[in-house]
């Protein structure tokens, strides 16, 4: 019964989120003329669909990722990074039943969904993705990022990811340090974007890095063995300051140009659900799962007690959400929904107060 309840809850979450996205898109369409100017059609990414202005010819960047039961989150993640300029996504579906097949068919021709079931398949998926991109079967891409669906790239001095990479990844691989975001005192899932719900992070940068690699320098003979360290046959592994280093860690890495916002925990119940369902990136033994659940109760202790902040994630940072609203226009309507709900609640509270006096 617990298993059935978990699945039902997950499906309800997905349905609620999709309904809100559809409603937001419908409202957006009604304001197309306002958004794009008279007689101009604007798409979800703020671009003029009928513009005759010449577009800058850019080199291409692709994304490699493996997912398991991420249906409630993947649209936000893909839309965000597509708007940044990633024009191809290889999504490796680690579910047993190829659950992402329909989503992939409906999402668009910039998404390739590959069924990839099994235990601890992340490195195999990354290697397969790197090989496919090196062979150039989908548009001859220059770079590939190897990110998870809970990681959002925040570029701070460039509008387009290819412009950022032209400046910082002429060869080898550019590394990006994590910023860890906490639960923002949230206990349960709500059908709002992840980047809107979680806006408090650790004050200091995490030493772990993820990479965007120049495909001509990717060494597929060695194979990728660590998601935080991509093997190279030429060029250097370096940060945005140009400092070369080897390995998965860059203590005190620079964050003025780029950072990777890692929404690892989300709410308490989402975190527990993720632990119970298993992950695409590793296998779980029962002892490991029990220990993880115990750690979760400790980590979320203050949130469960109703306290506003747990003392770890104290730095307010809504950069990813700001970029999301700027680049993916329908997402901005979630703020409008929030504002309207708060306004209605305030009116209700005023009415109740007046009635009681």
Please name the defining characteristics of this protein:
membrane, alpha/beta, globular, transmembrane helix, two-stranded antiparallel ribbon, Spore Coat Polysaccharide Biosynthesis Protein SpsA, Chain A, disordered N terminus, glycosyltransferase activity, 11 strands, 357 residues
State the secondary-structure class.
alpha/beta
SS elements, strand count:
11
CATH class bucket? Alpha Beta
Residue-averaged pLDDT: 81
Tell me the span between the first and last alpha carbons.
48 Å
**Can you summarize the main beta sheet?**
9 strands, mixed
Query: Looking at the chains present, what oligomeric state does this protein adopt?
Result: single chain
Series of H and E elements: HHEHEHEHEEHEHEEEEHHHEHH
How many domains is the backbone divided into? 1
CATH-derived topology: Spore Coat Polysaccharide Biosynthesis Protein SpsA, Chain A
**Rg estimate, integer Å:** 21 Å
Q: Can you count the helices?
A: 12
Q: Tell me the fraction of residues in β-strands, as a range.
A: 5-15%
Proportion of helical residues: 25-40%
Q: Which spans have pLDDT < 50 for at least 5 consecutive residues?
A: 1-8, 24-53
Rough outline: globular
CATH-level-2 architecture: Alpha-Beta Complex
């Amino acid at each position: 019964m617990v298993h059935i309840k978990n699945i039902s809850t997950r499906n309800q979450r997905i349905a609620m989120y999709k309904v809100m996205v559809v409603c937001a898109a419908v409202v957006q369409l009604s304001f197309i003329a306002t958004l794009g100017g008279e007689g101009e059609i604007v798409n979800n990414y703020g671009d003029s669909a009928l513009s005759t202005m010449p577009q800058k010819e850019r080199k291409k960047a692709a994304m490699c990722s493996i997912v398991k039961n991420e249906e409630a989150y993947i649209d936000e993640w893909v839309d965000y990074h597509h708007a940044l300029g990633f024009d191809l996504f290889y999504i490796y579906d680690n579910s047993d039943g190829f659950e992402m097949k329909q989503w992939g068919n409906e999402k668009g021709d910039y998404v390739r969904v590959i069924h990839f079931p099994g235990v601890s398949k992340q490195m195999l998926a990354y290697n397969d993705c790197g090989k496919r991109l090196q062979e150039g079967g989908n548009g001859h891409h220059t770079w590939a990022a190897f990110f998870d669906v809970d990681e959002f790239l925040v570029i701070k001095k460039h509008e387009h990811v290819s412009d950022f990479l032209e400046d910082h990844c002429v060869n080898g691989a550019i590394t990006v340090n994590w910023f860890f975001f906490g639960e923002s005192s949230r206990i349960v899932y709500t059908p709002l974007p992840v980047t809107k719900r979680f806006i408090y992070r650790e004050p200091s940068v995490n030493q772990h890095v993820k990479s965007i690699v120049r495909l001509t320098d990717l060494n597929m003979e060695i194979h990728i063995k660590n998601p935080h360290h991509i093997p190279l046959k030429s060029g250097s592994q370096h940060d945005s300051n140009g400092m070369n280093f080897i390995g998965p860690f860059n203590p005190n890495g620079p964050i003025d140009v780029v950072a990777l916002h890692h929404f690892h925990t989300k709410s308490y119940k989402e975190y527990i659900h993720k632990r119970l369902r298993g992950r695409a990136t590793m296998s779980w033994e029962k002892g490991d799962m029990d220990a993880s659940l115990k750690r979760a109760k400790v980590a979320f202790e203050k949130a469960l007690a109703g306290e506003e902040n747990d003392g770890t994630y104290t730095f307010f940072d809504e950069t990813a959400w700001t970029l999301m609203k700027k680049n993916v226009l329908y997402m901005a309507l979630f703020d409008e929904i929030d504002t309207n709900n708060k306004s209605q609640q305030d009116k209700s509270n005023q009415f109740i107060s007046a009635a009681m006096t």
